[in-house]
Design goal:
The protein has 762 residues and is an alpha+beta fold. 23% of the residues lie in helices and 18% in strands. The chain contains 18 helices and 28 strands. The protein has a ten-stranded mixed beta sheet with strand order 12-11-13-14-16-15-17-18-23-24, sandwiched between helices. It is globular and about 90 Å long.
Length: 762
C-alpha cells in the first residue's frame, strides 16, 4: 500500500534525523526557564520530565558544556553533594554529557555541575529536581478513595488462565516491575518467547523493517495504574538503555488511549489498550499505555494526563528520548488525546483521533439537555411531539418510534445510555458495587457519605466541594460546571417554522433543570461559578491554544448521526474542535478532518511522516510555523466511501463542513445538538452563557402581546447572548497543577471555595 511505502521512506529520514545532535529538553521545547538551569558555561536539561515533576527517584539528565576551554573530562556532577559524574557519559559528536540520575530522595534534590577550564577559571551551574513517589500524585490532587486494585486479575500477556500480576504490595495497588518477551510467528500470531532465548524458535517472524519480530513487554504500576510498554528488542542483544536503545526501535513512540467513561472511577482498572499491537510494532514504533488511560476505568482527563507524563518518563529513562510521540484514541481516547496534548504541550507532538470529541466537560452538555428533553417529550408532554418535531427541537437526525420498543434514537441514547455518567447513584465498577464498607456506593438516603459515581465527583480536585451546606454528606459533593439558565430550547426549530410559538414557550417554561443528584427539578440548573472558572483555567474545557496550536492533528469524525438506536459519536464534534483551534490561533491549518472510514494505518503513517519533516526542519520558524509548512500534501480534509463496484474505499477530497453542498455531506449527513439548536456557536465551549435582554428581532415569527409577556416571564433575567464569551470563560493554563506540585497550581479559586465566589459574571 502507498502508506507502507511512504512509511519506509520516512523511516530512512527518521534514522538520519535521530542521528543528529539534539539539544532538546523533555517534551520537545526548552524555552521554559523552569525546565533547565545554567549559565553561559553550562546548560542542564532534564530529558525525561520537567525538573519539578520527577517521579520514581530517577531522571535522565543532559549537561551541555558551552565553555570551550572546559573539557568533558573536567566536568564534575554532584547530587545533593555526592559525586555522580560516573553516571554520565559523553554523547557522540556533541559537547554534552548524559546520565541517568538515580537515588533521588522525595522532595527537592540539588544537582550541580562544576569544572575548571584551562585558565583555571571556574564554571558551575545547578538545578533543583523535585521528586514525587511513583504512586503519585504530582498534579492531579489527592488520591481518590475508595480505590479497587485489579493486579490479582490482570494478565500481562496470554489467554485466560495465564499468570496474573498477583496481589498488590500496598494500598496503592503496586506490584514489582517485570519484563517478558513475546514474538510474532510467521503465521501472524503473538506467542510468549520461551527461555532460553538462544536459539530463537524457528517460527519467529520478521517486521516490515526487517528485524526479528520479538517484543520486550514491560509491566508495572505507576500512579496507581497498571502500565505496559512494548518495543522491538532481541533478548540476545545488549540490554536496552537510554544510551543503547533497541536496534529495532524507529525512535517514535505511540501512546494509545482507551475509550469509555461510565463507571470510570474508584478503580485501578481491569484492562488497558494492548501495546502488543501489530499495526504499530510492525513498523518499529514503541508503544505505551496504562489502565488509567482507558476512560472506562478513569473518566478524568487530568489524572489521565498525569499518568501519561509519568509512563512516558519511565519509557524515556528505559530507552531514550523519542524523536516524537503520537497520541491516539477514539471516543474517550479522543478526549484524552486532545486534552493532554493541549494542556501539557510537547507531551504529544501529534495526535490521531477517531470518533472525536473536544473534551469531557462540554461533552456532558448534550447528555444533560437530552435527559431534559426525554423527560419533557415522554413524561411531561407524552404523545404530543412527533419524531420529526423531536428531531427539529433536539437537532438529532435519528429519532423514531418502534411499536414494540418505543422511542429509539439519539434522545433516548443520550439520556439513558450515556447520561448515567452524570448521575452519582448509577454507574460503579464491579468492585465498588460488591463492596459493603460504609465508604462505598453513595445513596442519598441510606449512605449519603458514600462514594459518588459521576464525572464531576470523580474530578472533585478540580471543581472543589460545595461550600457552606447543612445537608448531610453534601460537604463532600463536587461543584458542577453545568447551567441552562437563558438557554432557548428549540430556537432554530421555531425560526425554521417547525414548531409553533406556543410549543416553543411551553417547552422552555417547563423544561426545568437538575439537582445535585441529577434528578429533574422545576427550576433551571445554575452553575457553581468557581467550578466553571476552574474548568476553563485547568483545561477541563478544550481551548486549542495550548499544545494543540503547534501539533500535527488528524481528527476523524464519528458515524453515529443516523444510527437508529442512537450513538454519541456524532460528526459535529470534529467541527467544534476545528472552531476552537480557529478561535485560539486564527486558523486550523495544522488540522485535517477525515470521514469515519479513513484507514487507521494510513493516518498514523501520515502524522509520522508529517512529524519527521517537522523535526528535520532546521529553520528559525516557530514550531507552529514548521508544523503548518511541513504538512504533507495528502493530509487534507476528505471523506471515504465504499466503491459499489470494487468494494474498496474511494477518497473524496473536499473541505469538511457542518452543512451545505458537497459529496461528503450528501453521503454522511451531519446532525446538530440541543445546544446548537438553541443558538450556541459550533465551538460549543460555553458552560454558562452571558445573558441579554429579549430582542424580538431574534425571532423570525410573530408573537402576540400575550406570548411576549409569557416569554418575558420565562426568561426574567434574559436569554443567552451567544455573541459574547461565556461566564468565567478564559484561556486554560498550560501545565496546570491541582497539587501537590506547587508549580502552576490553580489555587486562586480553591482557596475561596469554602466561602463562595462573589466575582462578577464575566
Amino acid at each position: 500500500m502507498n502508506y507502507l511505502r511512504n512509511f519506509l521512506r520516512a523511516l530512512a529520514c527518521t534514522l538520519l534525523v535521530s542521528a543528529l545532535p539534539s539539544g532538546l529538553a523533555y517534551a520537545g521545547d526548552n524555552d521554559d526557564g523552569d525546565r533547565y538551569h545554567g549559565d553561559h558555561h553550562f546548560k542542564i536539561d532534564v530529558l525525561s520530565s520537567r525538573p519539578y515533576m520527577v517521579s520514581g527517584g530517577d531522571a535522565l539528565v543532559r549537561v551541555s558544556v558551552k565553555k570551550k576551554d572546559v573539557s568533558l573530562g573536567a566536568v564534575r556532577i554532584e547530587l545533593n553533594g555526592a559525586n555522580i559524574t560516573g553516571a554520565f557519559r559523553a554523547d557522540a559528536g556533541a559537547r554534552t554529557l548524559t546520565g541517568l540520575v538515580t537515588g533521588l530522595r522525595l522532595g527537592e534534590n540539588e544537582l550541580s555541575v562544576d569544572a575548571k577550564g584551562k585558565g583555571h577559571g571556574r564554571a558551575d551551574a545547578g538545578i533543583t529536581l523535585t521528586n514525587y513517589p511513583i504512586q503519585g500524585p504530582i498534579i492531579s490532587g489527592p488520591h481518590e478513595f475508595p480505590f479497587a486494585c485489579t493486579t490479582a486479575s490482570f494478565i500481562p500477556f496470554g489467554p485466560l488462565g495465564s499468570p496474573t500480576l498477583g496481589a498488590p504490595l500496598d494500598a496503592d495497588c503496586s506490584v514489582e516491575r517485570r519484563v517478558q518477551y513475546v514474538y510474532r510467528t510467521t503465521a501472524g500470531v503473538f506467542k510468549s518467547l520461551p527461555q532460553p532465548y538462544s536459539p530463537l524458535p524457528g517460527d519467529v517472524g520478521v517486521t516490515d523493517t526487517g528485524v526479528p519480530y520479538i517484543v520486550r513487554l514491560e509491566t508495572g504500576t505507576i500512579n496507581r495504574a497498571i502500565y505496559q510498554t512494548a518495543i522491538l528488542h532481541n533478548p540476545n542483544d545488549a540490554a536496552p538503555s537510554p544510551f543503547s536503545p533497541p536496534a529495532g526501535w524507529n525512535k517514535r513512540l505511540v501512546y494509545p488511549l482507551g475509550g469509555g467513561c461510565i463507571g470510570g472511577w474508584y478503580t485501578q482498572g481491569p484492562d488497558l489498550v494492548n501495546p502488543v499491537d501489530h499495526s504499530f510494532l510492525r513498523f518499529g514504533y514503541g508503544v505505551a499505555s496504562a489502565t488509567l488511560n482507558t476512560f472506562g476505568n478513569n473518566c478524568n482527563d487530568l489524572l489521565s494526563s498525569e499518568t501519561v507524563l509519568m509512563v512516558k518518563e519511565r519509557f524515556i529513562e528505559s530507552y531514550g528520548v523519542p524523536l516524537f510521540t503520537i497520541g491516539t484514541g477514539g471516543s474517550g481516547g479522543a478526549y484524552q488525546s486532545n486534552q493532554t496534548g493541549d494542556n501539557y504541550p510537547g507531551t504529544f507532538d501529534g495526535i490521531v483521533t477517531t470518533s472525536s470529541f473536544p473534551d469531557v466537560t462540554t461533552g456532558m452538555l448534550p447528555m444533560g439537555n437530552s435527559r431534559l428533553l426525554d423527560i419533557y417529550f415522554n413524561k411531561t408532554r407524552p404523545g404530543v411531539y412527533s419524531a420529526d418535531l423531536q428531531k427539529a427541537i433536539s437537532g438529532y437526525l435519528s429519532v423514531s418510534i418502534d411499536p414494540v420498543l418505543g422511542w429509539r434514537g439519539m434522545i433516548n441514547h443520550m439520556s439513558n445510555v450515556r447520561g448515567p455518567r452524570m448521575d452519582p447513584r448509577v454507574a460503579f465498577p464491579d468492585q465498588i458495587v460488591a463492596g459493603t464498607r460504609p465508604e462505598n456506593r453513595y445513596d442519598p438516603v441510606t449512605n449519603p457519605d458514600g462514594a459518588r459515581g459521576d464525572v464531576y465527583d470523580h474530578t472533585v480536585n478540580v471543581y472543589g466541594v460545595i461550600p457552606n451546606t447543612p445537608v448531610p454528606g453534601m460537604a463532600k459533593f463536587a461543584q458542577r460546571p453545568l447551567d441552562n439558565v437563558g438557554l432557548q430550547y428549540g430556537l432554530k426549530a421555531l425560526n425554521d417554522g417547525k414548531i409553533t410559538v406556543d410549543q416553543f414557550l411551553d417547552l422552555n417554561e417547563v423544561i426545568g433543570g437538575f439537582d445535585i443528584d441529577f434528578n429533574r427539578v422545576a427550576n433551571r440548573t445554575v452553575h457553581y461559578k468557581d467550578a466553571t472558572k476552574r474548568a476553563y483555567q485547568g483545561g477541563r474545557i478544550l481551548n486549542g491554544g495550548g499544545g494543540l496550536a503547534s501539533m500535527a492533528i488528524i481528527t476523524r469524525m464519528g458515524a453515529g448521526d443516523l444510527n437508529v438506536n442512537g450513538d454519541v459519536h456524532v460528526r459535529y464534534h470534529a467541527q467544534a474542535i476545528r472552531q476552537r483551534l480557529i478561535n485560539a490561533n486564527g486558523n486550523a491549518d495544522n488540522q485535517a478532518i477525515y470521514g469515519n472510514l479513513a484507514p487507521m494505518d494510513m493516518m498514523i503513517e501520515q502524522v509520522s511522516r508529517w512529524l519527521t519533516a517537522v523535526k528535520a526542519d532546521s529553520s528559525d520558524r516557530s514550531l507552529r510555523e514548521k508544523v503548518i509548512a511541513n504538512r504533507p500534501g495528502d493530509v487534507v480534509d476528505a471523506c471515504w466511501s465504499v466503491n459499489p463496484i470494487t468494494k474498496l474505499l474511494d477518497k473524496i477530497i473536499e473541505t469538511q463542513t457542518l452543512s451545505g453542498p458537497g459529496e461528503c455531506n450528501k453521503l454522511f449527513p451531519v446532525g446538530l445538538s440541543p445546544e446548537l439548536v438553541a443558538g450556541s456557536p459550533i465551538n460549543v465551549d460555553i458552560i454558562k452563557c452571558q445573558l441579554k435582554a429579549i430582542d424580538m428581532n431574534d425571532y423570525k415569527v410573530s408573537f402576540s402581546t400575550q406570548q411576549r409577556a409569557k416569554l418575558q416571564a420565562i426568561f426574567p433575567t434574559g436569554v443567552c447572548d451567544w455573541s459574547k464569551k461565556g461566564v468565567k470563560q478564559a484561556k486554560s493554563r498550560t501545565w496546570a497543577s491541582f497539587g501537590p506540585s506547587p508549580v502552576n497550581q490553580v489555587f486562586d479559586i480553591q482557596d475561596r471555595r469554602r466561602h463562595g465566589d462573589d466575582d462578577d459574571d464575566d
